[in-house]
Write a structure and sequence with these properties.
alpha/beta, 12% strand, 7-stranded parallel sheet, 54% helix, TIM Barrel, 341 residues
Length: 341
């Protein structure tokens, strides 16, 4: 299974660039920017990331963003993720970034996006990893702030494929942001929103995503299984669900493998992703391997999940097709060898 996972080209649709900030880079950027931190070794950084719930995770997450100050910082963060992605044979990514986490500290929007996009261009040229950027709004900030940042994004429209909604879901439903997402749709952006696992009013939030916001994809979305109507709507619309098993283990005390299998059997485009890999200590291949090792996912199931990541992506069909053909070629070779053995 390890060889199969390694050999197959993969797409990642749910990874927060700020969540890829490894301890070593955090310390290096703090030194570069002459910032004082309460720890001075990678081991101490990891110890400080010993969060126990979503609010404590978010505190650690946003504390880490403080070291991102210059365009070069955002470049280095993004390119380091793409290097790790290339090592996992990830060939396409739709990464998230959270501009409000930085502009609220005085970092200019163009500083953030220029560093990220320069890394995207270099990663495509030097690593063969292509990407399209998703700008997320922080749902625990105001709708007015989200609208302001949507306006800020317009000069950089050609660099951004869609917008999302993340951060603390409690008391911050999709219904808080309909005007923002309606305008984003008019600007030509694709739409997605986080509906985290086992949060308060999870199914209500998924319902709002589908019927009020009219999203093109849902991030996480496991709790849709609690409603036949939600599952039917998601399946009929062919919407992708970007599930993060190792991250789910933190929220639900397991990889939610049982739920992922149910989604596959219902014909839903469930995909596997890493979420915040520097915090959960698991990148995309690690998540797939965990499903194989801990929940005994078969080769057929792993292949289907990887195919789904391209099918649920926002690439045009003519660009999806070569990736899917490559998966089919490797799959045929894998089963031929397995049969011969």
């Amino acid at each position: 299974m390890h060889h199969l996972i390694s050999a197959l080209p993969k797409a990642e649709l749910h990874v927060h660039l700020e969540g890829t900030l490894e301890p070593e880079m955090l310390l290096a950027l703090a030194k570069r920017n002459q910032l004082s931190l309460p720890y001075d070794t990678p081991e101490a950084v990891l110890a400080a990331r010993n969060f126990h719930d979503l609010p404590s995770f978010l505190r650690a997450y946003y504390a880490g963003t403080q070291v991102l100050v210059t365009e070069q910082d955002f470049y280095d963060l993004t390119y380091a993720y793409f290097e790790r992605a290339a090592a996992d044979n990830i060939v396409y990514v739709e990464p998230f970034f959270d501009p409000q986490a930085h502009t609220s500290r005085g970092v200019a929007f163009d500083t953030i996006i220029s560093g990220i996009c320069r890394a995207q261009l270099d990663a495509a040229a030097m690593l063969g990893v292509k990407s399209n950027l998703i700008m997320c709004f922080l749902r625990d900030m105001s709708a007015e702030s989200a609208m302001q940042h949507l306006e800020m994004s317009i000069p950089f429209r050609h660099w951004i494929i869609g917008v999302g909604l993340d951060s603390d879901e409690k008391g911050n439903p999709p219904a808080k942001f309909p005007e923002v997402f309606a305008k984003a749709r008019k600007l030509g952006y694709k739409l997605t929103m986080h509906c985290d696992v086992n949060r308060e009013n999870s199914t209500q939030h998924i319902h709002q995503c589908l019927h009020l916001i009219d999203v093109d994809r849902i991030d996480h979305g496991i709790n849709a299984l609690e409603s036949d109507e939600l599952c039917a709507t998601i399946t009929e619309r062919g919407l992708g669900l970007t599930v993060c098993p190792v991250s789910n283990r933190f929220c639900a005390n397991n990889l939610t493998g049982k739920e992922i299998r149910k989604m596959l059997k219902k014909g839903m485009y469930v995909t596997i992703n890493s979420d915040d890999p520097a915090y959960f200590r698991a990148y995309l291949s690690d998540n797939l391997q965990a499903l194989a090792d801990d929940d005994h996912f078969t080769a057929d199931e792993i292949i289907m999940l990887i195919r789904n990541s391209f099918l649920a992506s926002w690439l045009p069909d003519f660009l999806k097709r070569p990736y899917l053909m490559r998966i089919d070629q490797i799959t045929r070779k894998f089963f031929t060898i397995a049969g011969a053995a």
